[in-house]
Specification:
single chain; alpha/beta; 5-stranded parallel sheet
Length: 228
């Protein structure tokens, strides 16, 4: 897999590139936001994942993420020292697919890279089959991965859509956290649990329906079908 590493610290980049190369990745190193954006022209240039450090010298990392998402659907994993939920939700709203908080374990980083790449390779292949879910004002089109609320299209990341679609196919049914992680992230790695919480929070905010996804304490989540 080709991977774009956006990191301004050459020492960090060299060490990480060596680790990634040992695990079969073909790494391209960009030292600034502008270098990253140039590498992604046109259409992502065949990269499987973008690993984006937020501490860049020329542009704010969040801004770079937003620009990347406008150019390509290539999965983006943010690397940040900001561990608060608000910062992570902001990154997800800009189109990031996942995040890793510094300092991170290399095994954790590799697990997240493989998780987003596996999910991308398992994108819905049911194109041409008109499958729609309607839950009150929420309209979900599975083949086109389009979500709207009261007719207004809501921009979701791939994982946000997969999470919503999973819950929406069985309204009222409680999905265990382990089951959601297995089906959406395609991994059993326990560290993904915090990512799940952030994605749920992001969905509630984007849909402007905080009661749509109910937390079942100690078990998981379920979608509460709205009236109307």
């Amino acid at each position: 897999m080709r991977l774009l590493l956006v990191e301004d610290d050459n020492h960090v980049a060299a060490a990480l590139s060596a680790v990634l190369a040992r695990h079969g990745f073909d790494v391209t190193h960009a030292r600034s936001g502008e270098e990253a954006l140039q590498a992604l022209v046109p259409e992502g240039d065949g990269f499987g994942v973008v690993l984006l450090d937020l501490g860049l010298p020329d542009q704010d990392g969040y801004e770079v993420c937003g620009k990347i998402r406008k150019r390509t659907s290539t999965p983006v994993i943010m690397v940040t020292a900001r561990s608060d939920v608000r910062s992570r939700i902001h990154g997800l709203n800009l189109g990031a697919d996942d995040y890793v908080v510094k300092p991170y374990d290399t095994g954790e980083l590799l697990a997240r890279i493989h998780a987003v790449s596996r999910r991308t390779s398992h994108e819905d292949t049911s194109s041409g089959i008109e499958t729609e879910l309607r839950l009150g004002p929420v309209h979900i089109e599975l083949p086109t991965r389009r979500v709207s609320v009261d007719g207004s299209v809501i921009q979701l990341t791939r994982k946000e859509f997969d999470l919503l679609a999973l819950l929406a196919q069985r309204p009222g049914v409680v999905f265990r956290r382990e089951q959601i992680i297995s089906e959406v992230w395609r991994t059993s790695w326990e560290g993904t649990g915090r990512t799940l919480e952030v994605h749920v929070a992001s969905l509630r905010a984007k849909l402007r329906m905080p009661a749509l996804i109910e937390t079942v304490r100690g078990v998981g989540y379920r979608l509460v079908a709205p009236a109307g």
